[in-house]
Amino acid sequence: MADEWRVADASVRLLRARRELQELLREAKAGTSLVVVSESADVAIATPPIADSAIHVAWRQLGLGETKVRVAVIIQLAVASPVYDRPTIEEGIAAYLAPDSTDRTTCIAVLPAGNYWTRVFRGARVSAQLPFDAAVQTLKAGLGPCAFYAAYGTPGKSVRRWLVARGWDLAMTFDVGAPGRQANSSIGMAEARYYSYWEAIYSLPPTAVACIASRPEGCRAAVLAGASDDRAIPFPDIVRIDRRWWRRSPLLVDGQRFLADVAHEVGRDRFVSFWTSALPVDTALAVALKRPVGEWTADWERGFVRPIRLGPAPPLGAAAIAVAIAILVLAVVAATASRRQVR
């Protein structure tokens, strides 16, 4: 019941915010592509200077200058005292309202700051305080799907349906860093010698496990899941993304940055051709990559997770002993045959 209330409340908030922000966006000076507002307990407040500065730095670092699709970010600061007449807002779950026929040029992101960042933004001293760069990285990730809309415009129908069917799990972040830099999954942080690693591996969908094993057919299936769904694009198109990695069971390990890495690999022109293509997703993506989707993804996955072997396999020590015994047997047989020939 609480989760249903949160979903409904987030939808109402986004639709109300769109109406309220339209006037603010009209009053913004020409060339303004990013608008930032804040609220706490449903009351609009001035955006803390640290948060405002961090989100604008994040925007510039992503290379998002003046864009055709504007982005409005609502930073929800945590309330100082608990509210008992409604469920509390969950930290880590962001909500996005994509452009549609009502407003084709604005994407809205609602980002709950949570208790820690609320205290930081308000200037409180916290233990083990993180640097300003950490706030930039947090808000950079929070731009999520809106960053893709700002950079590349509205996706074609086939790509948009595919992303909607998957909950935008392959485009959760627009940021591109070194492989493994953003690998916060339980697999990326665990070691194969520990039980927790294999527990995490086998809690994944079969296609994700196959992709970790560098099987192109598994990687292809993991990426193209949802591409054949002929579902209607919802209206309004609202996406809720849970950024807490321990709450997700990804179809592709570290897939939250997959499309950002594709864009970085193929360049803007080829990625825009894919993004706006009317072709089926598998065809459009293969054309952009100039390689089969499964093969490219298998290579990409190896940049984050060490490949595993699937199927029955003896322990390394047992295999070494077996090889040694086989060599010894061959040596004995060869020696026996040699003595017989001499006689």
Describe the structure.
With 343 residues, the protein is an alpha/beta fold. It has 2 domains: 1-154, no CATH class; 156-229 and 250-310, no CATH class. It is 48% helix and 10% strand. The chain contains 15 helices and 6 strands. It has helices at residues 2-27, 49-61, 114-121, 132-142, 144-152, 157-166, 186-189, 195-201, 206-212, 216-224, 258-266, 268-275, 281-289, 293-301, 316-342, and strands spanning 34-40, 43-45, 70-77, 93-97, 106-113, 238-242. The protein has a 6-stranded mixed beta sheet with strand order 2-1-3-5-4-6, sandwiched between helices. Helix 11 packs across helix 12 (268-275). The chain is elongated and about 100 Å long. The protein starts with a helix and ends with a helix.
Query: What is the N-to-C succession of helices and strands?
Result: HEEHEEEHHHHHHHHEHHHHH
How many independent structural domains?
A: 2
Give the strand order of the largest sheet, numbering strands 1, 2, ... along the chain.
Answer: 2-1-3-5-4-6
Which term fits the overall shape? elongated
Q: Proportion of β residues? A: 5-15%
Provide the helix percentage: 40-55%
Extract low-pLDDT stretches.
none
Ends apart, CA distance between termini: 90 Å
The radius of gyration computed from the alpha-carbon positions, rounded to a whole number of angstroms, is: 25 Å
Total of helices: 15
Strand-pairing-aware structural class: alpha/beta
Oligomer: single chain
Number of strand elements? 6
Give average pLDDT, whole number.
Answer: 84
* Main sheet specs: 6 strands, mixed
